[in-house]
Specification:
This protein has 653 residues and is of the alpha+beta class. Helices cover 32% and strands 19% of the residues. It contains 19 helices and 21 strands. The strands form 6 sheets. Strands 14, 15, 16, 18, 19 and 21 form a 6-stranded antiparallel beta sheet that branches. A 5-stranded antiparallel beta sheet has the order 1-2-3-4-5. It has a 4-stranded antiparallel beta sheet with strand order 6-7-8-9. The longest helix has 23 residues.
Amino acid sequence: MSQNFSQQSSQDSVASHASSKLPLEFSQANVTKFMKKFKNILFDDDDEEDEWLRNLSYDSNQHALTMKVDLDFSEEFENATIILPRTFTAYSKGQFIIGDNYHEVKAPSFQGTLKNLFVLLKRLRDEELEKLAPTPTPVMNAQGDPEDPFNDDSDIEETPFMEVDIDFDEDLESAHRQAIREKVEALLRDINKTSGWYSSFGTSGSQQSRIHICINPKPRLAITPFVAQAWGIDFDKYICINLTLGEHFFESHIPMDVDTFQAGNLQEGTSSIFKDNNKSKYGIQWVVNDRASKWIQRFWPFKEKYIKEHHGAAKRNPFIGLLNHVEHVIKNCSKFCSVCGEKMEFEGVKPTVCENKLCIFSSENFALGVDVESQILNEPELSDLHISFAATACNMQGNYNPFKPFPEGVVWRGLDTRTGQRIEKTFIHNGSKDMTLLRSVLNSIPSVDLLGKWIREGKLKENLDKINHLCYPLLRWIFSSNRTFMKCLKEEEKLDTLHTSFQYAMLNSTPEKELKFQALKKKHGSRWMWHGSPASALFSIMRQGLKNMSGTNGQLNGAAHGSGVYGGQNSSISTSYMRFLMGWKHSERFGGHLGCLMLCEIIDLYKPHPYYVIPEQDHIQTRFFFVYTGSTSTNVDASIFPKQLPKIEGFNS
């Protein structure tokens, strides 16, 4: 039955919520229509659903469905609410609340949410019925077989609920179905002719077929291992796309279902893909799954849309078209918002969402992109550093606020346990950014080591909620909004002459921007320069890039030598511009005052007189940065680089 409900695009959903007029799909007439549609399938003919389910309606103020239900056969109705996601996606979920009980409901679309809500209500009601009339213990007959305690006709076979079909086409003739299958297999054989692609065709039950399409990331994506880490892609595994079709294949009006993951081992070959328990998630899995689903919906049915719109033998193969689209999505994942797909203002190396409030809310509410627990456990030093930079930017006073972007879309929604009313907490107060609240919440987050202890106990969110309900979503936002990929240098890689143990490799440009830089470098050559910066600026740099702030409110020093990013040939020049500022009070690594020194590679078109001034952002790439927790004195000439730089696999080796 679930095949008959198509997903809506997140763009359509966002557009609907932006309108002041109630969207048609949320209208009472539409809700009533869907309820009637499921009635004969979900409920017995003599079980009128309005006897125990009443007043089902859409509340635009809460963006929720409200209702009164009698689930325990007491004829006493309880108020119940399902809070809908702001954006419908393949992974979005609604929150069903009744009394003190809470249930998550899959919410791929408004219609799909209603279907899953009714399934949940039926299950809860059936569970209550079982409590009232439990199944008797079977009585054994003379042959040792259990007798039917209810004396039902044993030869009546009841169709399982999830296999019930609604308005499905008549079965195709077996020969015709086999012909279509052979055509699908021929299309898949074309995929196997391309290096780095692999496909197979199988079945899952009598009425479903499964297509497995795999991509070898090393030859196909043309990215470095460092970039693969930034995108959360395991370079030793295949990227897999599983497509599930109904028995009618391409002639069905229901699009294929899509599931993406990583599996297998490149050294063991494609046979390793199908080993048990071999699936694993990857960093941009949600984005790939979402974009692949929308591509299929756009061109479905393939026979009527895709094949007619494309010409040429290769282009007429929809599976090749899908693979090309998926590769394009992966290669450009950091250029576009992970939720709405709009182009990002700054193209960092790590994918994230734009500053649209709905996109931020979707990212935080449905935990897209960043696993807070893994981040803290696997990278405690970098986690500490990110929070410290945020605290430094938040604590800075003056006309210019370096805390950019601001977490406007970070929201906590819940119920007041005293009044039962729905409440909402944000960092926006009376239409303005509440820096005081942000500072308070940020500085209330305990140390990374304590956070790690809570994670191992399985109580991170629970304990953070006791401090402030905004702590956990803010922590997620700090990690997920970062556009820069960093790696702690190993002890043998660190530069002793820099007099700090906090040394990092840094990557904040997309592969495309890096290729442009390398093309300019091939033509003009490159050299290295130092750039000193207060730690407060690093918060913005990691989200918006190293910018030319000359002539803006963010200009902290003069611009006597022209507009551009300033740097020095010697580190002693740049350390004087670091401006040590107060960091995060709960940091166990970066306590006290922080300052940052960056080592940048620049196109060899500039000379220091006495400073480098780089007006073009395409002419500068930040490669390393060094954090100091107090005053320092270093005297390192940048001309010794790159000869004395550490060799880091996948980065500069």
